[in-house]
## 1
Amino acid sequence: MSAPAPTLGILGGGQLAQMLALAALPLGVRVTVLEPDPAAPARLCAEHLQAPYTDPAGLERLAACDAVTLEFENVPLPALAALEGRVPVRPGPGVLARSKHRAHEKEALRAAGVGTAPFVVLEQESDLPGALAQVGGQGLLKTSELGYDGKGQVRVSSDADLRAAWAELGRVPCVLEGLVAFERELSLAVARTATGEVALGPLVENVHRHGILRTSVFPPAAPPATEARARELARAVAEGWGLEGLLTLEFFQLAGGELLVNEVAPRVHNSGHLTQDGGGVSQFEAQVRAVLGLPLRDWAPLLPCAMVNVVGVAGPDGQPLHPDWAAIDALAGTRVHLYHKAWRAGRKLGHVNLVAPDEATLQERLVQLEALIP
Ligand code: AMP
């Protein structure tokens, strides 16, 4: 008789859990997600425990899995505490404590020898005077916790702006970052098994729109030494933080080629979605493998590829603007990925991957694809 299928529990049931489950199934892995939303995207391809993340019965079921992973960083601490010592949670509480809090994250990055934007921690009103000058006079005020996709952050260029931004964000603990004049944004994922084996993903170039990722491209147009440096930094973070599982680093690449880390996501990342269709192992398969201790090597697309996000956009009349799906399907090399979510302005609803035989063709078709997606 064959061994029972390995089981993977996921805290969260959104689109990342949906795509993790879709990558796990062909490996013979069964997935269970704990997610309160009855309409969660992952419910369609995994066993869905519809309950709060701290639900004792739900956590009991996750504790019976071979390993647990997560698709968002703000997992309630009591949920992690209930699983501790019963089932490996990867990434574990040590990595999450760093990555869910911007100030702790930056301090932990610097401790691992990784550069970040200049920053000042603002805990109370009396910390505001002089803070902007310390980061270079132009900055972004970001809440220390619960910010994502440009939410919970305000651009500031004067002390008056800073005071207004502090009030706008609710007078909660914040990090004031200096505005980085980057040449491009890049990202790279790193996976590490419980036995300390490290595997690295591809370096990807990212373009944001209104703080939300719009496009990712592989390979990036970065200077030649950049990839080796990004890999070195990712390895330093994975080892320095004792990573088990997968995390993604978002970088700012400066004009001289230097890399600063903007943010760390303790999971697969929107910029890695293009690995689903570029050939070879995807970031989702890499996370499943790293978490369950299955064999894992570096992963990267075999062909040039790109991704364009489908985000809810409204026209001047407030009505949804839809992508031209027929034209997208007619464009060679596209693959559509939808998340089964109801339309809402600013919401990530899906993405379209594009693969091409060479970089020139990729760029040409990417221009066409972008014109089809509002
Ligand atoms: P975040 O939510 O911190 O990942 O920020 C979203 C996007 O805002 C980033 O990908 C950048 O495009 C931009 N951004 C964030 N922080 C900075 C910064 N310190 N300097 C310049 N741009 C930034």
## 2
Amino acid sequence: MPVVTSSLSGAVRTVLIDNPPVNATSVDVRRGLCAAFEEAAADPRTRAVVLACAGATFVAGADIREFGKPPQDPHLSEVIALVEACGKPVVAAIQGTALGGGLELALGCHYRVAGEGARMGLPESTLGVVPGAGGIPRLARLVGVPKALELATSGKPVTACAAREMGLVDAVTTDDPRAAAQRYAEDLLQRGAGPRRTRDLPLAPPPAGYFDDIRARLAVSHRGQEAPLVCVDIAEQSLLRDFDGSVAYGRERFRERVASPQAAALRHAFFAERAATRPAGLPEPDAPVRRAGVVGGGTMGTGIAMCFLNAGIPVTLVEQNEQALAACLRNIGKTYESDVAKGRLDDAARQRRLDGLRGTMAFEDLRDCDLVIEAVFEDMAVKRQVFASIEAHARPDAIIASNTSYLNLDALAEGMLHPENVVGMHFFSPAHIMKLLENVRGARSSPQALARIQALGKRLGKVAVMVGVSEGFVGNRMLSRRARECYFLLEEGALPEQVDRVLHDFGFPMGQFQLNDLAGLDVAWRARQGRLDRLSERERACGILDELVARRKRLGQKSGAGFYRYDAQRKRTVDPEVSALIEQDALRRGFLRRTIGDEEILERCLYVMINEGARILEEGVATRPEEIDAIWMNGYGFPRYRGGPMYYADRIGLPRILARIHAYAEQVGAQYWTPAPLLAELARKGAGFYSS
Ligand code: 3H9
């Protein structure tokens, strides 16, 4: 089947792209478009053209799978030039998403009609590349340089209404966009309106100082990312060159970017996330979740309840007593009010969400829920009791999920009448904001229950990765190894600010000790108390958390002091008292503190995680390295432009990592630094986690 076809209706020819799944501008589409527009130009019966797409979406971009391969003619910018040059008016009919090369194509059309649900954007920089087919010079001519760069540097799409307001589309329709575009074209013919080429519009310069200002802002908001700054270069050059010169400049910068390590890592991130959220061997889900129950209205429970409400799923929330229930309903109400105040939500949507919420103290009220998730205190006995109460009152086929972050799901399911209904759904705090969801398959979870929670994860807008039972599952298990190493580094000579700076410079939003302060040192301390019997002698003896939490009541940001000191705005400063405590603790325990280099800190933090990641793969807790990468990029701030820990490991080279693991085994101790057999085996073969 040809991917581009044409048909004539009256004097209007529709050129239709049909290239599932997202109508990307693959080479066949580019060639097909050239042929179709040449035909339209030559055909005397054709007086106007509608450019439309089959399926749910307009062109969602260039074909990412072609990136990194030898280019094939024609280039997309040449196709768009041909469309724009057409002597007959060309109307784009936009439904779904017009992204990247798709929006560039629409900008080359003379008019744009969009369905009201359509979204348009230039997400290239999120893939480490830049609009390479005239997107920036054309968009800047239509909406001004600042708005064009807002789209290109954020990568975020705008709605059809916002696009109309800024002058990006000519009409928004509630009708079928193709039919509306046909009418629009007929109207143009009736009015005698001809082509209106974006390239011919004047380009107004932005206010003085604008480019310096946006570069400075991007250096902070997009720290470490190269592509957004190249978008700024393209906009700046568009003012200095003629139109064709600026398109050529953007094309050249695209060519350079597409071959960059950041672009390769971000492409990996794109495909890894898609692979990671589709576990093999699950059936199609047989029923959606129509009502969810949440037991426990603390921070996690309220966040989880809001996830459901935000996705349009009504929630029954169970709390123990009236006071606790009132507090959590109040918290949810307040969060939505603040969303309205910040313009993120309108009043009607806020009301709809609140209408979906039912608070109760009776487990009986869970009887109409398709899924109930417990988010109570992290204690096996407490959770077991809650599970039993849920099972006693919920429907026999309801899925019963635990939000535990460390406890053994299979032990939790013991004694349940229907262990096949038991699963884990590990949300990350704040649950209504964080993208990651670790869905946990218990030994006895049914494939259908797992299929349903995977589908639910997608509906909640999460990156839902299925993992196996293991202490801390995937993310927290690797994090706990990194944390251990960070505490060791404090003993051996580093200070929190050095460790945190190294992790921040690598691209994490914050370092280990900042993270501890944010989450609450009491949380880390309690987790440590619960695991004391499983810690090594050295870990048990490490007294810094006990000193900070138990003796000095430094609980982190919330108490104004933790590893750092915080002012009323939560601005962080280094606290000499903490440095002294760390030094005293090390001295007391006989450590000879030394100057530790940044490279050692980085290696120890990352390689210990990578080694644990290899074990996680060996044990089948994760089945593919993509799952680990997706988890770390979406739940722990691993910089996307480095592709996740397992991808990063391949870039460094497993033989080098193995050699360093051996060196740290000598230096720190083999009990912490024994190479995972999988890592050792891959390194020996000269392979990687992603290459054989
Ligand atoms: C660009 O355009 C550069 C230009 O300036 C160029 C100049 C020269 N290519 O996400 P989904 C696949 S850069 C190839 O699950 P959804 C995807 O892998 C590009 N494949 O669906 C998946 O395949 P599979 C700028 C693509 O409904 C399937 O489609 N464009 C592409 O949740 C379904 O995807 C972008 O960055 C592609 N461009 O979301 C847009 N896009 O089933 C990237 C998707 O085999 N795409 N696939 O696993 C998206 O953001 C989302 O896919 C979209 C749909 C919102 C469109």
## 3
Amino acid sequence: MTVKCQGPTRAKGSLSDALETHPPGSVSQKEHIVSDEITREQLKDEIIAALRHSRGVSLAEANNEDMYVAVSTVVRNLLADKWIETREDTLKGNTKAVGYLSAEYLLGTQLPNAILNSGVPQKVEAAVKELGFDLNAVEDVEVEPGLGNGGLGRLAACFIDSLATKAVPAIGYGIRYTYGIFRQEFDKDGNQVERPDYWLYKGSPWEQANYRREQRVGMGGVVVTTKDGKREWKPAWQFRAIPYDYMVPGYESGRVGTLRLWSAKAVDEFDLLTFNRSQYEDAVKGQTWAESITKVLYPEDSTYVGKQLRLEQQYFFSAASLADAISLFYPGEEHPDMTTFPDKITFQLNDTHPVIAIAELMRLLIDKYGYDWDTAFSITQRTFNYTCHTLLPEALEVWDAKLMGELLPRHLEIIEQISDWAAHDQAKHGASPEAIERMRIYSNGRVRMAYLATMAGSHVNGVAELHSQLLKDITLKDFADLYPSKFTNVTNGVTPRRFMRLANPRLSELVTKTLGSEEWLNDLEQLKGLEKYADDPQFLKKFAEVKHQNKVDFADWLKRTQGVEIDPNSMFDTMIKRLHEYKRQSMKLLQVIALYNQLKSGQRDINTFQARTVIFGAKAAPGYAMAKLTIRLINNVARVVNNDPALQGKLRVVFIENYNVTSAQRIIPATDLDEQISLAGKEASGTSNMKFAINGAVTVGTLDGANVEIRERVGAENFFLFGMKVEDVEKLDGNYNPRSYYESDPDLKGAIDAIASGMFSYGDPNTYKEFTENLINKDPFMALADFREYMDIQDKIEAAYQDKQAWTRMGVLNTANSGFFTSDRSIQDYLDRVWMTGSLPQHK
Ligand code: 26V
């Protein structure tokens, strides 16, 4: 089904309208029901009431969609008291709160997670069943809010889950994009086609518009000097920022946190504050702009493009969030004592996207609340911390000062001042003039957001040990030399509730039975207790059965949704992540083609060949031509390989259409071999590697990002390592000659030549010319240099897989030793190293 770009505007009386005027808590006006005491019968009554009151249907009339909304409403009601109480306790201010500022949240579906955290999951399940519905089918109705691109957005979602589970007083702030990450389709030639993702087309029972906390955000205009010599910004346009609140239920903490996503709306009348006639047209234009600000998520995630609308988005949500936090902690106060602000809330900047918040807080402190520059800067510095998520120079945000000056003239002024202050401070710390020049926040008409965040916040962290080290050694070296104590590492993590308990109920049950309790779900290091069963044939058998059943389920799902058949007895070899050259999907593909050639030529015996299903899932940025060409090629290799009878179905390639959180939850538990094969020094962390390890897949990977730490923990013998190290890459850089590898390795040459011959393009040698030429002549991420080692390790993997018990043992040891990679631990590290705060009492 395709959704038209200009989706229908919300009809009056639609679900979302109803939610705006009648919050779900009011659906059932009956006596108050305490969530954990509710009986199955009461739940059934509540669901029937919700069907009647919010959908206007009887149980007999209800379909899965009605049921989805009704169950969601009831589960929300169960969580409402804890939500309110958590908010009240957060605002008491006894424990410093955390404000997580992120332009992306890749949430995944809400209902299964809310049921899990409702306190009464079995009763909900039973109630739905007794009403004659299949809960899985009901849950399948939900469209996931795809409000993010990849790792960074999913990490934000894992973090708010852990914040709630650890009872940390926190608010996640972000943007309610009307259109999330595009829905990916493949056309008949295998090309990616982007379709708009109008995820709200049926409304969402999980969001609640909160007009009481609406804010105003200005943009454009001029800065004037007032009579008393103060600078004052007169914005040309004002936008309404409407918060939509989402519950973030903690697991077994009795706490429900808040995710507050901002949506832009036009003000009814535009302010003609500074206008003369000629600016009138611009003022009117502001009206139309308003709603476009939060209309769409930018689908680029690796190359910075200085788009004005993107800066508008960034400022819009940063400014609204700051205004919200100030009014939350100083309600009704016109002259709050802002020197206490950093004791009330600490803001984490998720990459540079919200870094403009720094200039906004300075503006408020100086222009609105009357603080002097030094006091304002000290408050600001104590308020913010910054996480960097990349090492690619092309991903660092550097705004054109002219553009920023037109949109945010006062902020640019302030940034200029911070830039001067920074240079001064660096000199005081003994930096050379050259180093000071290199560290300039604002120079040559450009504003470097990472530098601003580094100088105007307290801490800077990378997202894995290696990444944090490389930040200090390369990307932010000058700063690290000068301010070493600012820099720290917080290795990423993932929530085991979603990626183990919900995604892999079979393995969860086995773990719970084996360990004797479910405590591991919020104390993941307890998985260590599985280690002693690694040589227990009974346990290994059960572990292998779980994996096999998951593979059968995945194969069924694939057949149902994409019409593709795969063999659950083959090895499932998976590479799921955004499509980018540095991640090297191309190298995986060359290996597949080389295998194909060997099988066809008889160099490899088809009879002894370990059957493999190679699974890809990846979206490419719409403007990234090489990535899109790679997608096309993967699809066409799949077409040729899968239809070649000579292979007897023993090698299959599948490309999951529209890879997202929901499909990740299906693929990961079914995977035998996980591919983490980026060029060393390029992947900041990776987080799917952690999800795979927890779920008992074995990883083949380079020494990059969090792979390093995963291997250390699960043991070198349970991880297939290959490829150049960061030092090798550095040595090769500058005199790298990919052609020499091409010419000297027959497998490699055979694979590239096969592509160039037109084998995967119906005989047309031109279709993939740019792909092959790029590899032979440039190969910016050195896939050719690592190819031979990659082929060899894959042979070892094939041999290892033959011994099923030994393979299963490796999987068990991956699960048993990956407890460190829970996002609960990441959050604890942030609390200890960055935020210096703690938890509320847990209300079980
Ligand atoms: C970056 C950019 C840069 C250009 C402008 C648009 C834009 C939009 C999003 C992003 C985010 C890219 C950074 C990112 O996703 N990094 C990933 O973060 C994960 C969580 O820390 C980490 O596991 C991955 O290794 C890292 O690539």
